[in-house]
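[INFO] parsing input record for FAD/NAD(P)-binding domain-containing protein
[DEBUG] input buffer:
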Amino acid sequence: GPTMAAAKIVILCLAALPSGIAALRTSRLAPTPSRVPIAPARAPAPCMLRTFYDVVVIGGGPVGVTAALRAASLGRTALLVDATPAQQYQFTGPTGLYSKALRDSALRIDVPVLRSMGISDVAIWAQLQEFISNILRKSGENNMGALEASRVPHLRGVGKLLPAEETDGVVVEVSFLQQRAKKQSILINANNVVLATGSRAVQLSALEGWYGLPISGHPRVFDSDSIKGLSFLPRSVVIIGGGIIAVEFARIFAALAAEVTLVIRAGDLPSSLARVGIDRAIGFVLQADLQEAGVQIAFETEVVDCAFAREQPTQYVSRRAGGAAAGSD
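[DEBUG] output buffer:
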């Protein structure tokens, strides 16, 4: 709303802290989801649940869905266990697909033009959220249809590995998420288990206590998983990290007309990306592309401290080594 018009957002490893102080110290510190076939108009019903499977896949993201479909295509019996929360579209992955949906939605909206027409940021963000929701829903429906077409059953619950006392295989206990389920859990035997549960984002110790904390009515500090909880269109974003995810979100928010600052510890972006196997030549192209898009890159810098600037709630201040301070409005 109007109070958010000049708000500052800081994303650290995709974390955000508008209206606060982020102290920065100069330091000298030397995957696209696989395509899944769209279901036919009338997909065959999934097979009845068994007590034994060749493969049990735990995790309903892009990797889990692809693994289950691959097993079925090889003639193996497969079961998919997915713990997607009830409020989220099933088989859309925890984070990766959200960033792609946000990216594609950002390309469909010209924020400066809409603002010049007098359309509020609240309305623009609502339109973005509708685009994102439609993309996620369609992807989830396609994945669901592909699983049904391949006759791969799925359970919405949490899988837990148990010791197999009388078999060489694996026993998986599936606890159901639905509170009204007739059974709280069941046991499934399998020859193999594929763990496709993904990973968790690292949260910076310098921002401990800030993640998810509402400031002026909205959480402002996010990691690369919780960024889905962003509830308004940011005017400025600071992204901490020099990996692929950081580069992706920097480009996305730049496309949404936000002032973006990318903070990395390396001396250049190629050096940071080289640690994840990105060729240096490609790294220089990405660095030039970010700068051309207006992204400011702070090299050899890391976050060491932050505090809420109560006297200037729409600003954050960056303090560098030697006591010098740099302000941002």
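[INFO] Residues 1-46, 311-329 have pLDDT under 50 and may be disordered.
[INFO] shutting down worker
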